[in-house]
Amino acid sequence: MLSPAAAKPPGGALGSLTNAWASNPKQATAVLVGLARDGLAEDALRVLEHMCASRVGVNEVHLGAAVSACSKSSQWQLALNALGRSSTSWHAAPNLISCNALISACGRGGQWKFGVRLLQHMRLLIISPDEISYNAAMSACERGGQWRCALSILSCLPSARVAPSVISCSAAISSCEKGAQWSLALGLLMGMPRFRVAPDRITHSAVISACEKAGQWQLALRILSGSTPDRISFNAAISACEKAGKWRTALSLLCQMPERRVAQSEISYNAAISACESRGRWELGFIVLTSMSRFRLVPDEFSYNSAIFACAKGGQWQWALRVFAGISEVRVACDAITCNAAISACAGGAQWQPALHMLKDIPEMRLSPDKFSYCAALSACEKGHQWQFSLSLLSEMTQTRLSGDELCHGAAISACEKDGRWQVAVSLLHQMPQRSMKPSAIMYNVVSSALETAGVWEASLALLGNMLVQRLIPDALFAGSTAGALRKAVSEESAYDLLVQLLQLWIAQDRPEAQEEGKPEEENGYLPGSSEHVRILGTAPGVIAIFKPTGVTTATAVGQVSQQLVGETAESELCNPAGLFIVSRLDHPTSGVCPFALGVAGSAAACWLQAQFAGRLVRKEYLYLCEGPALGPLGFTGAIASRLLTTDMGLVRGTSQSSRTEVSPLGREAATGYEVVARYCAPRGAAGEISELMLLLVRPLTGRTHQIRVHLASIGRPLVGDLTYGSRGSSLLPACPRLFLHCREITLRDVEGRPFVAEAPLPADLQDILACLQPVQVQESRNGNHQSEQEEQSLAGGSK
Q1: CB-side exposure of 8: number of CA atoms within 13 Å?
Q2: In terms of C-beta density within 10 A (0-12 exposed, 13-18 middle, 19 or more buried), how is residue 123 classed?
Q3: Contacts 24+ apart (CB under 8 A), 351-358
């Protein structure tokens, strides 16, 4: 065997070597084989040229070695040229080896069509394709994403009297895997015994990868358990679990790898960390990251990126920065994605100062901030109400020749809206077309909300006119904000006059089927088999109101009503066959009136009702039993206007609670009015001597998440039965089975402009609770009579 130096002779030495090759061609063969092994295509072809020039005979073996060198280096053009010149310049006919090498070269060069065409023309050269020929062609199809062609070639093997091998089946399965055809890949795996071929690790890994890409994690686990897995199989199965959000199973597979004598790799850990990230299990992602060193594995940038994203999704910006700081300790070169992930984590926690510091420090890491870096920092400033820094960041992007997109401008506009800078918000909106950006409906809605809050109705109407000039039809939220500004500054009737005009635009763009869905079909009624369950309270043009009991989600209630309206059973495959649209929701444990639009999303009926809610034109009344020190005598009224901030909790600690709201200056405007309608003594033995139970009639003006519960809890009057914001163990009524919160009345207007009122009496379970309480006897100052328990119960039952 020649040394590498001998395998690559210098140009000046070729002349002396070719003289020796004339008497001993095997030496030339050895040199060409060495060049093929190293993938030195140009050197191999140069050797052939010198051999021809020196009249050293070039045979099929020499040609095959040169073409193999081209294949090894993916030089399909050189390989094709060499084979084309073989019979004319070098007087060497192509053979099976050179044809197979050329097919492989075409596959590696992404030229699957040339590879398949050569396979078809081999018989014209009186060369019978063998297993290697077919496998090389299928591999070329796999690389080109041509799974149909690969399967067609596999089906030709029996007629060509070529027995498929495990390599043949693996190539076909891999082509299906890359083409996202998991069912075909599985079928090929199950059909391998027909060819008397046993699947190997590569075959199983390819099928598991196909299942992973298709989200078939359970099938991937089944195949893994029935095979002798390797690292690739495990990694694919862990990734399948990661994509499906099955973090527990992903971590279990990671732990099983040493038990199955399979070495873990960085890819294994990265997939497991990513699984924790997808479900917000930041603490487990951090543990997996730190445990890599025990197995002598070094985390890479992907490991840190996934861990930082997990912390960000879990709302743990401090831990995200801690992970980011650990990168320098292990000398891992962080990339722009790493920095952007850390800035995004700060944005999620409304930590605008650390976000700006990180943005400033990116050049010190020999990186350049990109558009996503600025967008993340702008998001942090937006959540922190830092409109001035938002404008500075936009200006900085222009100076660094980074083109800001709609997302960046949207964050800056939102920052101005939250800080009451409506003039700046309007200016930013008008600048977008000049910068080749089209404002979205959301941006118009944000600016409209700022104008409504500021009470500048003239500017609101001007913005509406701007939309109409651009032939944009305002959506319900924009219309509601504009109507709200008119309601504040002019009158409620002026707000409705505007909505009536916009209603004509919505009707004009309505689909015919949406208009049909807006016709009421039932006046009232109970759903089949219901007692204190979902029932229809009333209908009017474009609107239907139902009673939603406790323990039923709004989505479930609308599905049941929808099925009743079209006369279908509960087993219908359509969850909402009548096309009702939810315009307002009640929490799962809250009962009472719930209105829906008789039309699909975007229909005239849906927009009409949504706009009324957005413009605060809908009157809502709730009965709310709270506890704490007395608010005042019967008839006492009060108002709460604290801003409310809602945080998404859906991915934190795997809780079922989707969000949590708190009073915060960074929150959105919220207003709640209340009136004391009944007072009850604290039960005997209850904690708090000065506390009592109070039944309030609550009228929320806005509709923030958990608004009533949080507002009243913030003044020390938590809701009875509320384990999230309430007194919990120290409650005066710890045995209350659910939230004592009931929407008793809603007043709005139907699509014909007529008032629509829906009322729902207090449910029996809540009436039973009040019946067990002792009213506080209060001496009235004017007539000297006591407020009777009977009168209080009448109020509680819903009469006005």
Answers
A1: 12
A2: exposed
A3: 351/317, 351/380, 351/384, 352/377, 352/380, 352/381, 352/383, 352/384, 352/386, 352/389, 354/317, 354/321, 355/380, 355/381, 356/380, 356/381, 356/389
Q: And the tokens for 107? A: 């596959």
The per-residue pLDDT for range 500-558, each reduced to its tens digit, is 999 999 999 875 544 444 444 444 444 443 446 899 999 999 999 999 999 999 999 98
Contact assessment for residue 580 and residue 558, using Cβ atoms and an 8 Å cutoff: yes
Tokens 């015919």 correspond to what residue? 512
Please tell me which residue in 230, 587, 648, 765 is annotated as part of the active site: 587
Four-CA torsion 613, 618, 622, 626, nearest 10 degrees: 70
CATH of domain 616-796: 3.30.2350.10
Confidence at residue 517, expressed as pLDDT on a 0 to 100 scale = 45
Give the domain ranges of the chain. Answer: 200-303, 442-509, 616-796
Alpha helical stretches, state H, 519-566: 554-565
Tell me: the pLDDT tens digits for 444-470? Answer: 999 999 998 888 999 999 999 988 888
In this prediction, what percent of the chain has a pLDDT beyond 90?
A: 38
Catalytic residue status for 587: yes
Query: Smallest Cα–Cα separation from 706: which of 677, 747, 733, 741?
Result: 741
pLDDT tens for each residue of 748-777: 999 999 999 999 999 999 999 999 999 997
In whole angstroms, what is the distance from residue 214 CA to residue 192 CA?
A: 22
pLDDT in tens, 17-52: 555 565 566 666 676 677 767 667 666 766 766 666
- Secondary structure in 3-state letters for 555-595: HHHHHHHHHHHCCCCCCCCCCCCCCCEECCCCCCCCEEEEE
Q: How far is CA 424 from CA 391, 393, 406, 436, 437, in A?
A: 9, 15, 16, 19, 17
Across 117-138, average pLDDT: 82
CA distance 485 to 611: 12
